[in-house]
Design a protein that fits this description.
Blueprint (H helix, E strand, L loop, with lengths): L5 E6 L2 E6 L5 H14 L1 H4 L3 E7 L5 H13 L3 E7 L2 H9 L3 E3 L29 E4 L8 E4 L2 E4 L8 E4 L3 E7 L2 E4 L9 E6 L3 E4 L2 E3 L12 E6 L2 E6 L3
Parallel strand pairs: 2-3, 3-4, 4-5, 6-8, 7-9, 8-10, 9-11, 10-12, 11-13
Antiparallel strand pairs: 1-2, 12-15, 13-14, 15-16
Helix pairs in contact: 3-4
Length: about 230
């Protein structure tokens, strides 16, 4: 597989998939399917922005790509392209479009006024997803970066992150931080009694029937096991 045929990265709105503008279409779709199938559970439920650059993509080709993602539980949300052919195909399939290439912090289809360069921060930031609601039973959240949830994670809900998971509420569902193997990832919650908690390849569950006073806690990997301790600065 050519490494530059398909590039996948996490953005604030889900996933950004950048496709080669020169490779053969069957090669691209085959490589994309293989990349997704390597971590099917991780990608399932993701909202996808696809960047085509100047590549002209017909309605039939775009429809087949959309079907490829649909079959894997993924949603094609936005098409980024500089080709009129591709943009027209997306419009015909009722997919949002933009002619602007993706840049961190910018929402597709949104024109932002140019602002002065920001002062360099003391620390580098990391991409992630902010969810401003409770994640209910049957819902999933996936991100290759961090996930911050301003609400609860109910039983039957699932959160999978390549980085940390921060829940500003009750964590009752399944959570997997460091899903790509990052053992330094952490899970934090104001009230932590998850159905299942995973960090990288380590797994733990809450003791059944345990009653305790809710308090902010943080789960980390230490000495080859998940340890839950007080969450404080």
């Amino acid at each position: 597989m050519q490494e530059d045929t398909v590039a996948i990265k996490g953005i604030k709105d889900g996933l950004l998939i950048t496709l080669s503008s020169t490779a053969e279409w069957p090669t691209i779709t085959g490589d994309l399917a293989a990349r997704i199938d390597e971590q099917g559970a991780f990608f399932q439920g993701a909202t996808v922005t696809v960047e085509f650059g100047e590549r002209p993509v017909s309605k039939h080709e775009l429809s087949s790509l959309k079907a490829l993602l649909d079959r894997r539980g993924m949603t094609l949300s936005v098409v980024l392209s500089d080709s009129a052919t591709t943009l027209n195909a997306a419009d015909a399939l009722d997919v949002r479009t933009s002619t602007a290439a993706y840049t961190p912090g910018r929402t597709p289809n949104e024109t932002l006024a140019k602002t002065p360069d920001a002062i360099n921060p003391e620390e580098e930031g990391t991409e992630g997803v902010l969810i401003r609601r409770t994640v209910r039973n049957g819902r999933t959240v996936h991100s290759q970066g961090h996930v911050v949830i301003l609400g609860d994670v109910n039983p039957g809900a699932e959160v999978v992150a390549g980085g940390d998971v921060i829940v500003w509420g009750k964590l009752r569902g399944n959570v997997h931080a460091g899903a790509n193997g990052d053992e330094t990832a952490v899970v934090c919650a104001l009230d932590m009694t998850p159905t299942q908690l995973r960090i990288a390849s380590y797994i733990t569950t809450s003791p059944p029937g345990k009653r305790r006073r809710a308090k902010p806690e943080m789960a980390v990997v230490r000495d080859h096991q998940i340890i839950v301790e007080a969450w404080k600065e």
